[in-house]
Design brief:
This protein has 169 residues and is an alpha+beta fold. The chain contains 5 helices and 3 strands. It has a domain at 14-129: 50s Ribosomal Protein L17, Chain: A, CATH 3.90.1030.
Length: 169
């Protein structure tokens, strides 16, 4: 029985699971939106929200206090990239300064094609998807379209030979 067991194991040993959560947290804070499975997303939410809360406490006291330095050290323990940690303290934590928790949103986006695992998108509140900012893949400007090859140059050499009829018996 699993009574009073707090977290999911995600089919990994402890070190691998912590590494996975740290990497996903770093990706989420860098891009502000990632796609992953629902189980991983549910485990990632409290991990990232704890990092944001520690960063908020660190910037609330100012940059030169002992608590601010300790907050940076606690965050750097889980985030390997200095740029992501700096982004957390400079832009993300001030954005959530007046919010008492609930910094992430989990959206279920369907099932993965290969193994039908349920997928979810985890995003930071305030960084919602705006379809006007991103143009569709099929839409290109006229000068971006690749030049068409003449009919003779299309396909492989053998197709060209057999198309001409030179190698027929």
């Amino acid at each position: 029985m699993r009574h009073r067991v707090a977290h999911r194991k995600l089919g990994r040993v402890t070190e691998h699971r912590l590494s996975l959560l740290r990497n996903q947290a770093q990706a989420l804070l860098r891009h502000e939106r990632i796609s992953t499975t629902v189980a991983k997303a549910k485990e990632l939410r409290p991990f990232v929200e704890r990092l944001i809360t520690v960063a908020k406490r660190g910037i609330a006291d100012g940059d030169d206090t002992i608590r601010a330095v300790n907050a940076r050290r606690m965050v750097r323990r889980d985030l390997a990239d200095r740029a992501v940690a700096a982004k957390l303290f400079d832009t993300i934590a001030p954005r959530f300064a007046g919010r008492p928790g609930g910094y992430t949103r989990l959206l279920r986006i369907g099932f993965r094609r290969g193994d039908a695992a349920e997928m979810a998108q985890v995003e930071l509140i305030g960084s919602e998807y705006d379809p006007d900012l991103e143009k569709p893949k099929g839409e290109r400007k006229p000068d971006e379209t690749p030049e068409r090859q003449p009919e003779e140059q299309k396909g492989s050499r053998l197709r060209r030979i057999f198309r001409r009829g030179k190698n027929r018996r």
